[in-house]
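Regression check, magnesium ion case 304:
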Amino acid sequence: MNSLLDRRFLFVTGKGGVGKTTVTAALALKLASQGKRVLCAACNAKERFSTLFHVAPVGSEVVPLAPNIWGVNMEPSVAMAEYGMMILKSRTLYHAVFENRYVRSFFRATPGLYEWAMLGKAWWHTTEQAPDGSNRFDIVLLDAPATGHGLDMLRVPKVIVDIVPPGILRRDADRAWAMFQDSKQSGVVVVTLPEDMPVNETIELLGSLEGELKLPVERIIVNSMLPPLFSQEERNELIKPLDLDHGDPGHAAVAAGARRSHRERVQAQSLARLGDLRVPRIYLPHLFEGAESLDALRELSRRL
Ligand SMILES: Nc1ncnc2c1ncn2[C@@H]1O[C@H](COP(=O)(O)OP(=O)(O)O)[C@@H](O)[C@H]1O
Ligand SMILES: [Mg+2]
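Current build output:
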């Protein structure tokens, strides 16, 4: 994890429901405990930072979540408006341009613009300065959309860099893309579960990130690991058909054991498949009491 201390931007993605938001929050706690000022940015999500950190709902303003941790829930149209104001520097001009209904429908119809509004804003926060000239945040953690949408989001700056003529949009996309490609400054964190489908998606995602986009993948975080209860021999025994009838009191226990041993088998196979990838992995335990409390997040952050 020490290498992460020097990063300015991490893009956290993975299949829906694998624990992206949980991992983002745990990472934030870890980095904050090491003295980093961390911004957690969510993408127009039914955000959960407020529940996890016990604060009021997080909207499109940056708010404190915990010591050294801030949060924002980026809303594309608000982010576009902020961007417009930054470029046009005049409210009147801004209203004339951005509030114009033709311009608005153009924005809605332009693929990638809303994605860029959020990714560009998250990146822009890495450039923001405090009054004393230091960086306002040491690192921005983007709790990004799930796999396919996350990839689409990352494709946008590259398209802008490749086809948009020089100008402000292009200048920012150039700078953001340079940062995203620099493994010393940023990286993608792929969250997954030790199960078939999430591992399939992880393998595919890595192919696109490293092959097509040439972006550094910082870590694979394998979340919700089960502690194995059974040895390989025991699993082989448990896979055999039950030799007990349903009325037998042992039946339910053996059936539960068989289900658990099946999950352990899938976990072992999934880990073996992830082992073929050349990306460092971190394993986080499944917390049987749930991962919705600050204590649970602290437990996960200790394991990072
Ligand atoms: N290690 C874990 N142990 C137990 N529950 C977890 C763990 N990680 C995540 N969860 C739970 O799984 C659900 C999905 O997690 P979440 O972080 O919201 O995923 P995502 O952001 O990828 O959709 C949540 O209810 C969360 O509390
Ligand atoms: Mg989430």
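Comparison notes: The beta strands are 9-14, 38-43, 63-66, 69-74, 139-143, 186-192, 217-225, 281-285. The domain at 2-226+280-303 is CATH 3.40.50.300 (Rossmann fold). No diff flagged against the previous build.
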